[in-house]
């Protein structure tokens, strides 16, 4: 019901044309869940095993999987937000894109937050508490339905997209808070993680404000380079870095070693 309620209300309150303008961006952002779903599917048995046999390794597993999803998903979502008008123009035409590009940008931000939340969801399932996410959905469903009704009538498709993304942000922050009960996380670390999430959302939103294509490309290249650096510096250990370097052509290895140093 929560998955299709927004489209049901758009079709009932607006028009079938508006429903098409909303459904196409929604189908685009839904493809971003492939990576976090795959990672969480692997992490669920790992979390369950850690709870039973090695609780001390639980925090490291959680942080590592969360970094993997965030650093892979962030540049892709930022690219969609930055080039949303061009993506929609090439896909469905400029007239249709004018209505759908802003919707795509808003939904992509919500999809990024949701992608991260697959990891605490897997942790809660591994901790034998699948009831907690279900209770969250039961509690916020009437609030979500009411907000959708009001925002669609007042703001149209943008109102539906904002309501969808805001609900996911609120739900997923609660999921992270619930998951933190099973980890040794201080309030300071939680505040730092929340600040990083807000900074990531602000950076993606800034991509929508970049005016011309050339500046968009420069912005996205700089962002991608920063993500590659973060993966190399914070996600991979020394053994994995050596393995990556070993796969490169021999002539490139000395130059890469100098850059790393």
Q: How many beta-strand runs?
A: 0
Q: Assess the beta-strand content as a share of residues.
A: under 5%
First CA to last CA: what distance?
A: 53 Å
Overall number of structural domains: 2
- Following the backbone from N to C, one meets helices and strands in this order, namely HHHHHHHHHHH
Q: What kind of assembly state do the chains in view correspond to?
A: single chain
Question: Largest sheet, if any?
Answer: none
Global morphology: globular
Task: Describe this structure as you would to a colleague.
The protein has 261 residues and is mainly α. It has 2 domains: 5-209, no CATH class; 211-261. The protein is built from 11 helices and no strands. It has helices spanning 5-13, 16-30, 34-53, 58-82, 84-92, 94-126, 131-180, 187-209, 213-235, 238-246, 253-260. α2 (16-30) crosses α6 and α4 packs parallel to α8.
Concise synopsis of the structure shown:
The protein contains eleven helices and no strands. It has 261 residues and is mostly helical.
